[in-house]
Amino acid sequence: MKSPEIQSREYRQLICTACPMGCTLEAEKEGDLIQVKGGRCQRGGKYAQDEITNPRRVMTTTCVMEGGELRRLPIRTTQPFPKNRMDDFMTFMTTVRVSAPVFCGDIIVSNVLGEGIDVIATRTIRKKQPAP
Ligand code: SF4
Prior knowledge:
Strands 8-5-6-10-9 form a five-stranded mixed β-sheet, with no helix packed on it. The chain has helices at residues 43-53, 86-93; strands spanning 9-15, 24-30, 33-37, 56-57, 60-66, 72-77, 81-82, 97-99, 107-109, 119-121. 17% of the residues are buried. Helices cover 14% and strands 34% of the residues. The longest helix is centred in the middle third of the chain and has 11 residues, at 43-53. The chain folds into two domains: 9-53, no CATH class; 60-121, CPE0013-like (CPE0013-like fold), CATH 3.10.530.10. By secondary structure, the chain is α+β, with helices and mostly antiparallel strands. Iron/sulfur cluster binds at residues 16, 18-19, 21-23, 39-41, 43-44, 47.
């Protein structure tokens, strides 16, 4: 005789980062069902659902700059990137080399790692001037 399937419950406490209020959320997950309490608005429920099922982060780092006033270019993703691929992202960015000049907001990598997200420069870096 087959025993009935027991679904385990998970509890998580989260801080909503969807706005500066920073509400504390209590999430309870049982199977595919996620119930959320504690937010001041409905965005908290969406935040908790996303954080539990598909956590993402805006990635910031630097990449190599060639021929510029600085040797590293600060960059960020245009949208939150899947958290479970953060290591792949950081490894990939070590291979990226950019030539000066670069302007703040320029796209440095389109569709990074096939995730449909771009990487942009967060600073303008001009060409290095030759010494007089
Ligand atoms: S639940 Fe609503 S009010 Fe609270 S931090 Fe999230 S977005 Fe802001």
